[in-house]
Specification:
alpha/beta; 5-stranded parallel beta sheet; 5 strands; 50% helix
């Protein structure tokens, strides 16, 4: 972990700092790749130091004051000029979905930062998550369920409250509760007055150029050559990874219909009725 003293001398113009939060499986990797394609931007994807801090907060392992100072130091180190190079004009950091739980602390540390929130309709996101991360042969394995539970429960209080020791939840329920927990955390930080540029996956998919341009305008990042963005939009942002579209579009990995119905019922129970 980075010590505050290591980052104290790194100056940050937070009006040129972009913080990208999301529910996951919603186009966040594509948006991060767009930022990465711009010469004026240093784009970082999912630095795990912030994920650890979200876990600290959820598990009450440190006070908010300590976590805010550590988050401040981590951001400064992300903005630190590389050896022999000038500081980047802009820095964009895409976080893992759990980090929405510390976005208020990031806003306190960097009040002029631009905040982006990327989301997706819950059933569509659940179906995508299921196809990307579920192995039909191990989906009912207790060790696998425990792994997912241990990933999200320490971060989202809602999931922690559902945990029954020795009886890990089904994967579909854990993934859906992570959406509900993320959305609830987003509403809380919104209530604190933090401004966001919000984009939905369907907007990115169906009106990519318009949506990306809106995000960049919000961040006040000029783009001279739009063809760079068009090229990003034309590619599978997960190409070559374990969740390459060619690998996950397997009918055997689709969300079973009975789980879809259970998911709709759970959403309604938590106040998110859906017709999906």
């Amino acid at each position: 972990m980075i010590l505050p003293s290591q980052a104290a001398d790194v100056e940050v113009d937070d009006s040129r700092l972009v913080l990208i939060q999301s529910v996951g499986r919603c186009g966040s990797t594509l948006v991060s790749r767009v930022f990465e394609s711009l010469d004026s931007v240093r784009s970082l994807s999912e630095p795990d130091a912030f994920t650890n801090l979200a876990g600290w907060r959820g598990s009450a392992l440190a006070s908010d004051g300590v976590i805010r100072r550590m988050a401040d130091s981590c951001v400064r180190m992300c903005c630190k000029p590389l050896a022999g190079s000038e500081a980047p004009s802009y820095v964009a950091i895409k976080f893992r979905s759990q980090c929405i739980e510390i976005d208020d602390l990031l806003a306190e540390a960097f009040p002029a930062a631009r905040h982006i929130y990327l989301t997706r309709e819950p059933i569509s996101r659940l179906d995508s998550t299921y196809r990307a991360f579920i192995d039909p042969e191990t989906v009912d394995d207790n060790d696998y369920r425990t792994l997912i539970e241990d990933t999200f429960a320490p971060v989202h209080p809602l999931i922690e409250g559902e945990v029954i020791k020795g009886k890990p939840m089904s994967a579909w329920k854990l993934f859906l509760l992570s959406w509900i927990g993320n959305n609830g955390a987003f509403r809380k930080v919104q209530d604190k007055g933090i401004p966001y540029c919000v984009a939905v996956f369907s907007e990115i998919k169906n009106n990519g150029m318009e949506t990306i341009s809106r995000i960049l305008d919000y961040c006040a990042i000029p783009v001279a050559d739009l063809s760079v963005i068009e090229e990003c939009l034309s590619r599978d942002s997960q190409k070559g990874s374990g969740i390459d579209q060619n690998l996950i579009n397997n009918p055997a990995k689709r969300l079973p219909e009975e789980m879809r119905i259970k998911a709709q019922n759970l959403l309604a129970l938590y106040g998110y009725p859906t017709e999906e």
